[in-house]
Design brief:
Layout (H helix, E strand, L loop, with lengths): L1 H8 L32 H11 L5 H18 L2 H17 L4 H13 L3 H14 L4 H13 L3 H14 L3 H13 L3 H14 L5 H18 L2 H14 L4 H13 L3 H14 L3 H13 L3 H14 L4 H10 L4 H12 L5 H13 L3 H12 L6 H13 L3 H13 L6 H14 L15
Length: about 425
């Protein structure tokens, strides 16, 4: 197929969460620039729409669901997502074929991590609406979360055939990053950035953040920092841009500046990931009491995300058995490389090295460049007595992004130090090690 050839060549055909959920769903609505309603805040406008929309008016309820969904994804406020859920169901009760309400239902499945249900629903809707690229994109997102990367690529290729756009380019770019093809990802993500509506500052800023993430994966943090900084000139409250800057600042050893960047990300969009990064930066800055308070809150914030709660428990050295149980349960819902790595992390922490090894091999099979994957791979290799592999992975973990939490960075350095040849011994290349 022509589109598959383009994917293979890395040209014009070249995000959930996965990162696909908040990647280029719909352009944000532009409020009226005149009249008394121009001064309405977004929430005031949504509250008014909710009051004015009859419960049995399918078009009005579908519009309301779409607007609440957009605001819920932007703010991470579960109340907004609940409003979207109610409005979408009202719309579908009145008109079961209401396509925009069906799209909101799929996005809610993605948000709730119901990826098998998302795949089944998206597959049905791609058959029912074969010319709608949106459903192909959500099908591809579900396939990636389920670890079905070839199937996800095929869905994205069909999406590209139907509607080449920044939404499609971003998804293909993300998949290329997962596969370790960083240069290919960058070329496609530049297409995503140039195809974004220049009047839509938020979309342009997100495109720049995608490129920033890709340059972090490439090991060029200074370039990434420039992209995140320029993104903030388009969307000053974009959480991803602040968090990206925080990653680079922490890698530079500027822990206090990183704290402020992560605080800005938290203010813009409160979520557990940002809070955990904030706690890491506080710990790196020697502000341990503040860090522990943020870690406690981050654990509370991960209550609905078993994978992230398991990872955080392991990072903090708490309740390995619970972390393993959470990670095993999560692996029944999604089988992507990050979920496999978290379970491997739990297993090696529990001393179950033989069970951890094949999981970690699967997690590394795509070639994804990510500090956390490298760190767990280093732990597994070290526990397996594979010194060369452990050195390779732990060194990559310490140089990679996002930066490891201080506790894990210290552990990686300890393991590397323990494996270093004694001073004065001869290396395999015949050179004296001083």
């Amino acid at each position: 197929m022509a589109s598959r050839q383009l994917l293979a060549l890395g040209v014009a055909v070249v995000a959930i969460s996965v990162g696909g959920l908040t990647r280029w769903w719909l352009a944000p609505a532009r409020p009226d620039s005149s009249g008394p309603r121009a001064r309405e805040s977004t929430l005031e406008r949504l509250a008014r729409m909710q009051r004015e929309a009859p419960p049995d008016d399918a078009p009005a309820q579908a519009r309301l669901a779409t607007e609440w969904m957009r605001e819920g994804l932007r703010s991470a406020d579960p109340r907004h997502l609940m409003h979207a859920r109610v409005a979408a169901r009202r719309a579908l009760l009145a008109d079961p074929e209401r396509v925009d309400a069906l799209k909101v239902e799929l996005l809610l499945l993605h948000h709730d991590h119901q990826f098998k249900d998302l795949r089944d629903a998206a597959l049905r809707l791609t058959e029912q609406y074969p010319h709608d690229a949106f459903f192909q994109g959500l099908l591809g997102d579900a396939e990636l979360e389920l670890g079905r990367y070839d199937e996800g690529e095929a869905a994205y290729a069909r999406m590209m055939d139907l509607k080449p756009s920044h939404a499609t380019y971003t998804r293909v770019g993300y998949l290329r990053l997962l596969r370790g093809d960083v240069d290919g990802a960058i070329s496609v993500l530049k297409l995503a950035a140039t195809s974004a509506d220049p009047r839509d500052g938020d979309t342009v800023a997100r495109a720049l953040c995608e490129l920033g993430d890709a340059y972090l994966a490439k090991g060029e943090p200074d370039t990434a920092f420039e992209y995140f900084t320029v993104a903030l000139t388009h969307a000053p409250e974009l959480d991803r841009a602040h968090a990206g800057r925080g990653h680079v600042l922490r890698a530079r050893g500027q822990a206090d500046a990183a704290v402020e960047a992560y605080r800005a990300a938290m203010t813009a969009r409160p979520q557990a990931g940002h809070r955990a990064f904030l706690a890491d930066a506080l710990s790196a800055a020697g502000r341990e009491r503040e860090a522990q308070a943020e870690y406690v809150l981050a654990l509370q914030d991960t209550a609905q995300d078993g994978r992230e709660q398991a990872r955080l428990l392991l990072d903090l050295g708490r309740d390995v058995a619970q972390a393993e149980e959470l990670a095993r349960r999560e692996l029944t819902r999604r089988r992507d490389v990050f979920t496999q790595a978290v379970l491997a992390y739990a297993l090696v922490s529990a001393g179950k090295v033989e069970e951890a090894r094949p999981l970690m091999q699967a997690a590394l099979s795509l070639g994804t460049r990510h500090a956390r994957l490298e760190y767990v791979a280093g732990l597994v290799a070290s526990a397996s007595g594979e010194r060369d592999g452990a050195r390779l992975h732990l060194d990559a973990a310490l140089r990679g992004f996002p930066p490891l939490p201080p506790r894990q960075a210290e552990r990686a350095r300890e393991l590397l130090g323990a494996m270093a040849p004694p001073s004065g011994t001869v290396s395999a290349q015949g050179q004296r090690m001083e």
